[in-house]
Amino acid sequence: MKTRIRTEAAALWTIAWPVLIGQLATVGMSVADVAMTGHLSADDLAAVSLGANVWVIILVSVMGIMMAVNTMIAHEVGAENHERVPHMVRQSLWLGLGVGLIGCLLLNISTLVFNYLQLDPAINAKASEFVHVISLGMPAFAMYRALYGYTTSLNQTKPVMMIALGGLLFNIVVNWLFIYGHLGFPKLGSTGCALATGAGLWLMLGAMIFWIRRAAAYRETFPFGHYEGPNWAEIRSTLRLGLPIGVTYFAEVSAFGAVGLLIARFGVVPVAANQIALNFSSLVFMVPMSLGIALTTRVGQTLGEGDPERARFVSWIGYALSMSFAVVSALGIMLFRDQVAAAYTSDLAVQAMASELLLYAAIFQLSDAAQVTASCAIRGYKVTRTPMLIHLMAFYGFALPIGCLLGLAPAWLPWHPEHAMEARGFWTGLVLGLTIAGVLLTGLLHKLSQRRIRQPAGLSHGMA
């Protein structure tokens, strides 16, 4: 048994570690944006914080929809139906183009929300311009995620790592040029961040297409052999699986984003501190997220091979690895939260509040790892609707209402705290929501994997 555990853990890690580096590099773009504007001015940092809240909500929702590509192709690869893969990739690119354009439109419309947050007019203008500029990268991101799902389903994760690292380097250099106005370039501040990230996403899409065209690993399933128009039946099939994933991602990230917007009423310092704590916790979150992506691939391939017992074993190995990391990350954040805050900003008031909010981030490490790993394993079973409902209930039924109750202490309620906890109250609600999601999704994975083993061969109930 020990040998079997080590073998499966090694197989998962082989897929996960390049994905992890790629995910860290992608999130690193946001870290660079926040850190570099944090050393320019509090106003620019606040503008990036508010704009990033809106950008990330749409970005992660689009990413969730495109995650269906990974699940569907992994099943075909496991079943050795390689002849279907090129067609599926071409259709996923059409899906990505459409979803990306819709995401771009929604981003530009979403800037209207800033008018209702009682923001300083200068910060409102900066945040709106940030969103308008960065939105131009959304179609590239959606199509890149289609190819991302294709390459990870083939266990080819090296390009994900290399391209993301290149994108991070590009982002830092262009940030340096346009945020501060070095080497004769215009000093754009927060807008320079948006320009760097949007252009970087198009560069990453081009790099992924180039890699697939040149690498031998894609020859058997090469998707660019000929032009193929959109097949609406195929696109609808992918959307049926992907939309619940997108809503699941939206539920979580919009809850965090809504907290950022609601905290804006308390001033620049809480906004900046919230963004620092959220940004760093998102960076740490990439480890369980990467293990989850590897799990989606491994579980999908194993079920495609017709081995549900092994799929259950794979699921729990990945879950155990993720929870082990969560214990380490929780302790690390608790011990070094002051140093983390100081690395982001030189403003002492922002540092103090960010350090306090990072303590909440340390507390929810276990529940956050549990919910993302379990939901990714469940996704490998082509089950997406029940996790969606769990996330909606956890974040909109508990996290946000309790966060508003504690954070705002509205006087019109029959019972409310004597004093509003402000940002601390909202983060308390987030801890509760993540805990509920983690417990329920872990239970769902247990029941689903057991039921699939007992199910007669040839029967499957996807997208439940």
From TrEMBL:
Native species: Undibacterium pigrum
Any one Gene Ontology molecular-function term assigned to this protein's record: xenobiotic transmembrane transporter activity
Segments traversing the membrane: 12-32, 52-73, 93-118, 130-148, 160-183, 189-212, 241-264, 276-295, 316-337, 357-378, 390-413, 425-445
Protein name: Multidrug-efflux transporter
Localization (cell): Cell inner membrane
InterPro entries: MATE_fam, MATE_MdtK, MdtK-like
Gene Ontology biological process terms in this record: monoatomic ion transport
Any Gene Ontology CC annotation: plasma membrane
Membrane topology per record: Multi-pass membrane protein
Keyword terms of this UniProt record: Antiport, Cell membrane, Ion transport, Membrane, Transmembrane, Transmembrane helix, Transport
